[in-house]
Amino acid sequence: MTKETVKNLLEKENYTCVIANSAQVFTSRTRGVRPLVQFVQSGEIPAGCVAADKVVGKATASLYVLLKIRALYAKVISKPALALLNAQGIETAYETLVPHIINRTGDGICPFEQTVLGMEDPQTSYKAILNKMQEIGISLEN
Fold first, then answer.
1. 92 φ, ψ to 5°?
2. Band of pLDDT at residue 142, cut at 50, 70 and 90
3. pLDDT, tens digit, for every residue of 6-63?
4. N or C: which end of the chain has fewer CB within 10 A?
């Protein structure tokens, strides 16, 4: 699949994220980092997929690096996320580039982006994301 195909699927079906290759499509309508953490933990997503996502902050970008995607389309992406993806050689297209991802109440930076801002290693970021999820009570269960 191409970035254009997963982008169209993201928008048409109102998913929050779509990850695909020529044989499989993985989707979610759950907001935030939880679906990507679940995908990382499952180990079921093969390397080399393309992805589309509504909102990509640096935490989400770190998870996409761990998933070994080759290309990403984002409706909204933060500058730190774009820098990380570029440094990892992941082809990235987007609609809107923002300084940071804003939290859901609109009064500050997303807690996950804030948590990983100073981190460059995706594995270190992943551990910090898991700790933040536990700290604020986000379960990995559906």
1. -130, 130
2. low
3. 999 999 999 999 999 999 999 999 999 999 999 999 999 999 999 999 999 999 999 9
4. C
Rounded to whole angstroms, what are the CA distances from 111 to 51, 64, 102, 108?
23, 18, 9, 8
Q: Could you tell me the CA-to-CA distances from 116 to 33, 42, 112, 124, 139 in Å, in that order?
A: 12, 22, 7, 9, 19
Residue 141 dihedral angles phi and psi, to the nearest 5°: -75, 145
Task: Dump the DSSP string for 48-108.
Answer: T-EEEEEEE-HHHHHHHHHTT-SEEEEEEEEHHHHHHHHHTT-EEEEEEEESSPBPTTSSS
Q: Read off the pTM.
A: 0.96
CA dist list (Å): 38 to 30, 33, 42? 11, 9, 6
Opening angle at CA 42, ends 21 and 58, nearest 5: 75
CB 46 within 8 A of CB 70: no
